[in-house]
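We emphasize that the prediction below concerns an isolated chain of 49 residues; any contacts that depend on oligomerization or on bound cofactors are therefore not represented. The input was used exactly as deposited, without trimming of termini.
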Amino acid sequence: MIVVGLGAQIADPIVGLEITLVILKITWDSWNTVRHTEIDLEQIDGQMH
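Result of the prediction step, given as a token string:
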């Protein structure tokens, strides 16, 4: 981020885009983890009673 500190105006939106892409990657990976996790309904049902 030294480039942004030195005043290169093009670097600021590029850094913002990179941060956005990292956040989207983390969100995508988290969603895939949740989506592919098997839920044991019998265990959950036993805990609720």
